Amino acid sequence: MPNFDYEAPTSLAEALELLARPGEVRPLAGGTDIIDQLKSNRRNADLVVDLKRVPELLGISFNGAGLRIGSAVSCTVVHKFTAEHGGYDALVDSAELVGSIHIQNRASVGGNVCNAAPSADTIPALLIHEAVAHTSSISGEREIPLIDFFAGPGQTVLQKGEILRELVLPTPSKDTASAYLRFIPRNEMDIAVAGVGSLIEIDRATGNVLKARIALASVAPTPVRAYAAEESLEGSPISAEAIDQAADLAVGSAVPITDVRGSADYRKELVRVLPIRTLNKCIERLG
Amino acid sequence: MSKKQIKTTVNGVEHEILVDSTWTLLETLRDHLHLTGTKEGCSNGNCGACTVLLDGKSSCSCLVLAPEADGRSVTTVEGLADHGHLTPVQGAFVDNSGLQCGFCTPGFMIATTALLNENPRPSEGEIRLKLAGNLCRCTGYDKIVRSVQDAAERLSKA
């Protein structure tokens, strides 16, 4: 482990002052990625700032404007909260897939986002629900649509001293459903070979799809949206043929690599199959 | 690197410990409090051998920095039995031979204790899912699952 100092601020203002210090300053929420990365020399730190005692980052709430998730809220809490409130099923699905229960008790959804792994399970769910990243630094605040938040594997657009404060997701209409599925070789606890989140909003009167959102994990340097597949679904009724066509188009949005978890071709095949399964799950959930 | 004075309750006893900011909770428990029941396996959150309860929630102690435990409460496998009387979870692992070499067993017992606190009657599928973060290289898991089912049964009658 490299040598670093540790501070646990108890207010956002104090945390932002610490984060603005010179040198490599790393925020720590759950720590399940950063501690491992420090141990294995994949990231360095002069100072680690523990955010778990900052009340401004620990809230999760739902009101007319949507769902607000503080960046240090654990996956376990996000899973329970969203399961009780309804409306964000893909997030319910994905928050209980991040590592084991021991990891979920510590790891935050905000940390899953900021770690920016292309395979992160919660990101497609957040993308299809049109999450906006609200950030803070000593020089001010920013609101960044989550799709613009990622710069590459393990890299975000956050500047030095800037942290994710909260994720804000608009309230979906009652005729909206979402789902997230990933493929892993085990039955549980593994890193996605590919993951797909889908969301559809239906006009009950006409049966037409008003909105479709499909996001892909582990098939590009960053999480991506499958725009062509989304557009093909919107404006007409949902059907097996329409879903099939969207799945074919989703493959075009994937630029996977071959690695230890799977070949590029295999990942493309998964990106054809998983939208079909997630869209069918959405239909099932719409009832 | 800096030193931090932390106050942490471990197995019901408050300890004041001068820790290095880079120590993990696992190192602190094993090397400084000499509680060697908690094991170091993979050191990266995959195997669960180092599982402890942190404020009642199962956590990999290899992925917790020692100063993070300041003001918090930790339960290790040594804190389960009461004056030599095994808990129903421990008794069930013994009677169902839910262990062979025993290296993963402290983690499994802590994880099982957390699981049954949360969900006293888990299905076999739920047991396998919720204990997926604990790896055993000896038993093939069936005896562990049986131990957990038996522990649930014992706790329901306790």
Give the SSE layout.
The complex is a heterodimer of chains A (about 290) and B (about 160).
Chain A: E1 5-7, H1 12-19, E2 25-28, H2 34-39, E3 47-50, E4 60-63, E5 66-70, H3 75-85, H4 89-95, H5 101-104, H6 109-115, H7 122-128, E6 132-137, E7 140-145, E8 150-152, E9 155-156, E10 163-169, E11 176-183, E12 194-202, E13 209-217, E14 224-225, H8 227-233, H9 240-251, H10 264-286
Parallel strand pairs in A: 1-3, 2-3
Antiparallel strand pairs in A: 4-5, 5-10, 6-7, 6-10, 8-9, 11-12, 12-13, 13-14
Helix pairs in contact in A: 3-4, 4-7, 8-9, 9-10
Chain B: E1 3-10, E2 13-20, H1 25-32, E3 51-54, E4 57-60, E5 73-75, H2 88-95, H3 105-118, H4 124-130, H5 142-157
Helix pairs in contact in B: 2-5
Q: Could you describe the 3D structure shown?
A:
The complex is a heterodimer of chains A (287) and B (158). Helix content of chain A is 32%, strand content 25%. Chain A is built from 10 helices and 14 strands. Chain A has helices at residues 12-19, 34-39, 75-85, 89-95, 101-104, 109-115, 122-128, 227-233, 240-251, 264-286, and strands at residues 5-7, 25-28, 47-50, 60-63, 66-70, 132-137, 140-145, 150-152, 155-156, 163-169, 176-183, 194-202, 209-217, 224-225. A 5-stranded antiparallel β-sheet of chain A has the order 4-5-10-6-7. A 4-stranded antiparallel β-sheet of chain A has the order 11-12-13-14, with helices on both faces. In chain A, a hairpin with a 2-residue loop joins β6 and β7 (140-145). In chain A, α3 (75-85) packs antiparallel against α4 (89-95), α4 packs antiparallel against α7 (122-128) and α8 packs antiparallel against α9. Chain A is globular. Chain A starts with a strand and ends with a helix. Chain B has 158 residues and is of the alpha+beta class. In chain B, strands 2-1-5-3-4 form a 5-stranded mixed β-sheet, with helices on one face. In chain B, a hairpin with a 2-residue loop joins β1 and β2. The longest helix of chain B has 16 residues, at 142-157.
